[in-house]
Design goal:
Length: 186
């Protein structure tokens, strides 16, 4: 029988109230409390906490507090990541962030989803879909990335956009729902 964690990470219906998942979220919250309370002058301590929290973190990462996530271990980020203040990542499924990515303030990245069938929701079942952010992406402040989307290399997401579908590489998207405004390829 598959664990609830394996179901969650595999995109199947799972129970978030599972004791092992509750313990994982509590661990993440303890690390986040320490991270968000650490002084800016304690950069080495903050980086050590992030390395303990994230599933993978490249060199040169800067994550401005406050930062929030569900588990942390499902976040895998490349080198030179910059996340501005107030980012929320609901990382029930993997969140893969490429190299040289800039994420504006108050950005929300969601992998968590709920069944449309109310009986399944009442039964306490949830699901999650991974989010992939390619290299050299810039995500403007207040943008929301919905479950299951992929953002292609070099894309720009306008501030306040709600990204409901995949974003092609080398494009600028904006709006609610986000739509391609132009290509950056000339």
């Amino acid at each position: 029988m598959r664990s609830e964690k394996a179901k969650m990470q595999g995109g199947e219906l799972y129970r978030a109230a599972d004791p092992a998942l509750v313990a994982d979220r509590r661990r993440a919250q303890e690390l986040l409390r320490a991270y968000n309370a650490a002084a800016a002058s304690a950069a080495a301590r903050r980086l050590a906490i992030l390395r303990d929290l994230f599933g993978g973190l490249g060199e040169g990462a800067v994550v401005e507090p406050p930062f929030a996530c569900d588990y942390g271990y499902n976040i895998h980020a490349g080198r030179n990541l910059f996340i501005n203040y107030g980012c929320v990542v609901l990382d029930c499924a993997p969140v893969r962030i490429g190299d040289d990515v800039q994420i504006g303030p108050a950005v929300q990245i969601y992998t968590a989803a709920h069944p449309l069938d109310p009986a399944l929701r009442r039964a306490g079942l949830e699901m999650a879909r991974p989010v992939h952010i390619g290299d050299d992406v810039w995500i403007g402040g207040g943008a929301i990335l919905l479950p299951g989307i992929a953002i292609g290399k070099g894309a720009v997401i306008g501030a306040g956009s709600v990204v409901t579908r995949d974003v092609p590489s080398g494009t600028v998207v904006a709006g609610n729902p986000a739509r391609v405004l132009r290509s950056l390829d000339g």
